[in-house]
Specification:
The complex is a heterodimer of chains A (326) and B (257).
Chain A lengths: L11 H12 L11 H20 L1 H8 L5 H26 L5 H9 L17 H18 L8 H29 L3 H20 L11 H6 L7 H19 L9 E3 L4 E3 L5 H11 L3 H33 L9
Antiparallel strand pairs in A: 1-2
Helix pairs in contact in A: 2-4, 3-4, 4-7, 6-7, 6-8, 6-10
Chain B lengths: L8 H23 L8 H28 L6 H6 L10 H4 L5 H22 L5 H29 L3 H14 L11 H8 L6 H18 L21 H16 L6
The chains are: A mainly alpha (326), B mainly alpha (257).
The complex binds fe (ii) ion (2 copies).
């Protein structure tokens, strides 16, 4: 059906929507929008929100073990930011009539996905550095253009989020820098973490453009503004010089600077692994989702109590219209 | 009779360290909730409280370090002491349990902490007074937050009521310690530097009682007080908490992080 859309005459609603898109103004919740546009957004924003909250785990895991008080405080506020990002994004999705409880349900039962990057383990403190530097760094490359995405509430949520992401990236890089200037053992920790996180970070941008089924439409609707490969290139171009400053080796034998293009040429990631992890067979998929589900289930009686309490309060404060029979 | 006009440096060091240890241990307990809260809003609130507490702990450790005879910094004090050297109240080291247990521990401490800080702002030690003044604003929020949850859970559902009631009962024996001064507390009080712990008891009692009534909860009968935290006599779980917290810097000492 979709393929015929252009040949078909557009309804007045569709015309107005296309006009709005073309003018570069934002689509707002009150505006008419095609069903698929709404669905695509709900899927993307929902996945994004889920990624933020699942993303709390690999780092949350080190809050209790951060090696200095300063690092502990920074890590706490970073993980807290991610919870906030989740909240902004669920709110943005709710403007599309999606329901947060329902989305969380789908996360808990595996019907909605989150970024595969969070299915890798964090066995070492240096992973906190690598995650901030590379994972938040890659997220920034993805997210900065989203500040101009066509859907207003999503774009505005991204503006708030991006401000905090750059702090996340900086603190991660600073952890790496400190390790690399420390003992040989610390530098090795940093190198190992880079080895662990480099390829998963490269794959955060999604499949290659020629293998990315959802991309085309998202680009047309200006939900996405750059293709996966364009964003990936941008990330590699930023991250490689940063690795050089650290004195670390990027684990890619095909990596080289291309004078002509002014970009780095990089090797092909292991896409088979990528799809395996997406399919739920990554090292930590089960653990992440079951932790999430456990927190949700353990909190049920607390949320129930809050609702029951609020209802009791509302009854008390509501003025009585009729006398209660004794 | 003590004739010197100010407490000895080592007394001031120990006294400051006690308050730092309280904030640090409670912060570490809240850190264990990371990404496990009943909802996202609560994940954020618990971390907020944890962040305030680590901020307080750092100010107090830095001040302690400046009073210490040895060359130490805040991290040495937090990461290089064994559990018997920790002087926090037993209440704050109690395990998280379920959300009601966490809230019970938090509220009973917050209510005391606020009264304690109010008095400490009058300390003749200007650093302690300044740290207290800054912390009060934070602890007022902690107290509001935990009071709110005591009411919600106490007067929520049957299940939450029972859990809240059990939680209060479980930590109650550890509250008495907050009001029992030892010799150091006594000396610090005489100098006008420390807080009169006994004097806090009455207000705390009446505030807690009235909140419990609001929350449809009953106040446990005072049983045997369990004390010893300030003297470094802790239950095993403080050791476990510290072992986790201190593992990395202890396995690689003298490193920058
Ligand atoms: Fe984020
Ligand atoms: Fe982030």
């Amino acid at each position: 059906m979709r393929a015929n859309q252009n040949s078909k005459t557009l309804s007045a609603d569709e015309l107005k929507f296309e006009e709005l898109l073309a003018s570069g103004r934002k689509i707002e919740p009150r505006d008419w929008m095609p069903d698929d546009y709404r669905k695509t957004l709900i899927r993307q924003i929902g996945q994004h929100a889920h990624s933020e909250i699942i993303g709390m785990q690999p780092e949350g895991n080190w809050i209790t073990r951060a090696p200095s008080l300063k690092r502990k405080a920074i890590l706490m506020s970073k993980v807290q930011d991610e919870a906030g990002h989740g909240l902004y994004l669920y709110s943005a999705a709710e403007t599309l009539e999606a329901d947060r409880t329902d989305m969380l349900e789908k996360l808990n039962n595996g019907k909605m996905k989150y970024s595969s990057i969070f299915n890798y383990p964090t066995p070492c403190w240096a992973d906190m550095g690598a995650i901030g530097w590379l994972v938040d760094g890659a997220a920034i490359c993805n997210q900065v253009p989203l500040c101009r995405t066509s859907y207003g509430p999503y774009a505005r949520a991204m503006v708030r989020i991006c401000k905090e992401e750059s702090f996340h990236q900086r603190q991660g890089y600073e952890i790496m820098l400190t390790l690399c200037r420390g003992s040989a053992e610390q530098k090795q920790m940093a190198q190992d973490a880079l080895n662990r996180w480099w390829w998963p970070s490269i794959m955060m941008f999604g499949p290659r453009d020629d293998k990315s089924p959802n991309s085309e439409l998202s680009l047309k609707w200006k939900i996405k503004l750059f293709s996966n490969d364009e964003l990936r290139q941008k990330f590699v171009d930023i991250a490689v010089p940063q690795a050089n400053i650290l004195g670390l080796t990027v684990p890619d034998n095909d990596l080289s600077w291309n004078e002509e293009t002014g970009h780095y040429t990089y090797g092909e990631p292991d896409w088979e692994e990528f799809f395996e992890v997406i399919q739920g067979n990554g090292p930590c998929n089960k653990e992440r989702v079951s932790n999430r589900r456990e927190a949700h289930e353990n909190g049920q009686w607390v949320r129930d109590a809050a609702i029951a309490y609020a209802e009791k309060r509302a009854k008390i404060s509501r003025p009585k219209t009729t006398q209660d029979p004794l | 009779m003590n004739t010197s006009p100010a407490p000895s440096k080592s007394d001031l060091f120990k006294y400051t360290l006690r308050q730092a240890d309280n904030s640090m241990v409670l912060c570490q307990r809240l850190c264990q909730w990371a990404a496990r809260g009943p909802d996202l809003e609560e994940d954020i609130s618990l971390t907020n409280i944890g962040l305030d507490l680590i901020g307080q702990a750092r100010s107090l450790y830095q001040y302690s370090a400046s009073l210490c005879d040895q060359q130490v910094n805040e991290d040495d004090l937090a990461f290089m002491r064994d559990s018997h050297e920790w002087s926090n109240l037993l209440l704050v080291e109690q395990p998280n349990g379920d959300f009601a247990d966490t809230i019970a521990r938090q509220y009973l401490y917050d209510a005391w902490h606020l009264l304690f800080l109010e008095q400490l702002t009058e300390s003749n030690d200007t650093t302690l007074a300044a740290i207290a003044a800054k912390s009060i604003k934070e602890v007022k929020y902690h107290n509001r937050h935990s009071s709110m949850w005591i009411k919600r859970l106490g007067d929520g559902t049957e299940v939450s009521h029972q859990r809240m009631q059990d939680a209060i009962a479980a930590v109650w024996p550890f509250t008495a310690e907050m009001f029992i001064p030892d010799e150091l507390d006594q000396r610090m009080l005489e100098f006008g530097t420390g807080v009169d712990l006994k004097a806090l008891k009455h207000t705390w009692d009446s505030q807690v009682s009235s909140l419990l009534v609001d929350a449809t909860l009953s106040k446990p009968v005072a049983g045997e007080a369990i004390v010893g935290g300030r003297q470094g006599q802790h239950a095993e779980y403080l050791g476990d908490l510290l072992e986790e917290m201190q593992s990395l810097p202890r396995s690689m000492p003298n490193h920058q992080w």
